[in-house]
Fold:
Amino acid sequence: MKLIMLGAPGAGKGTQAKLIADKYQIPHISTGDIFRANIKDGTELGMKAKSYMDAGGLVPDELVIDLVVDRLTWEDAKNGYVLDGFPRTIPQAEALTKALAEKGEKIDAAIDIDVPDENIINRMGGRRACVACGATYHIVNIPPKVEGKCDKCGADLILRDDDKPETVKNRLEVYHEQTQPLIDYYKAEGVLKEVDGTVDMNDVFNAIVQILGA
Ligand code: AP5
Ligand code: MG
Structure:
C-alpha cells in the first residue's frame, strides 16, 4: 500500500502515519524527521535544511526529491510506505508520479487530514516530540505517561524549534500557497481521500482504516 499524508502543519500527519505504519506494517517516511535527524547529526544536508526550516519555509525541491526517490528503493519499502510531509509542492508531486510511473507503480491513496488554521495554532504550542524516535505527544490532548519522557523509548521530549507561534504562522502561509494545491492534484489523479482531523486521534485513525479497508 503506497500512501501519502496531506494536511497543514500540525494536522496530525505524523500521528496518523505512525499508526498506519504499525497497522499495515509499512515504513513511515517523514521528510521532516529525516531533516531533523540530519540537523541533529550535523550533516551537510542538515546544515542546508536548517535555515529554511527554522524560518518556517520549505527546503528547496532539489534537496528533497532525490532523497525521497532514493528512499523508496530501500528493501523495506517494497510492499509500500506511508509518506508524511512529501510531496509538499507541485514539482515534488510531479517528480514522485514520474518516478513511480517508471516502475509501473502509482500511489494508492492521498489522505488529506482537514483541520482549520485556528485549531492548528493551539495544537503546536502543546506538541512535544521525542528526540530519539520522533513520536509526538500533546501536553493536554495526548500526554505521555511520564512527563517529559517518551512512552515508546524513554528518551526526552522537546518542543520543536519551528513550533514557536510566529514560525507556525509562516508555515501555515507556506502550506496554503504551496502545499494545498496538491489536494486538487490528487483529486484529479482519483486517489484523494479526506478525513476530519478535528476529532479525537483514534476517531481520525478509524476513519482512515475504513477508507483503506481492514
Ligand atoms: P514536517 O516535520 O513535515 O512538519 P509539518 O508539515 O509542519 O507538520 P508537523 O510535523 O508540524 O505536523 P503533523 O501534521 O505531523 O502533526 P502531528 O501529528 O505532529 O516539516 C518540517 C519542516 O521541514 C517544514 O516546515 C519544511 O521546512 C521542511 N520540509 C519537510 N518536508 C519537506 C518537503 N517535502 N519539502 C520541503 N521542505 C520540507 O500533530 C501535531 C500536534 O497535534 C501533536 O502535538 C499531536 O499530539 C496533536 N494531535 C494530533 N492529532 C490530534 C487530534 N486528532 N486531536 C488533538 N491533537 C492532536
Ligand atoms: Mg509531522
Remarks:
- The chain has a mean pLDDT of 95.
- The first strand starts at residue 2 and ends at 6.
- Residues 133 and 153 are 7 Å apart (CA to CA).
- Residues 7, 9-15, 31-32, 35, 52-53, 56-59, 64, 85-86, 88, 92, 123, 126-127, 136-138, 141-142, 162, 171, 197, 200-201, 204 surround BIS(adenosine)-5'-pentaphosphate (ligand 1) (CB under 6 Å).
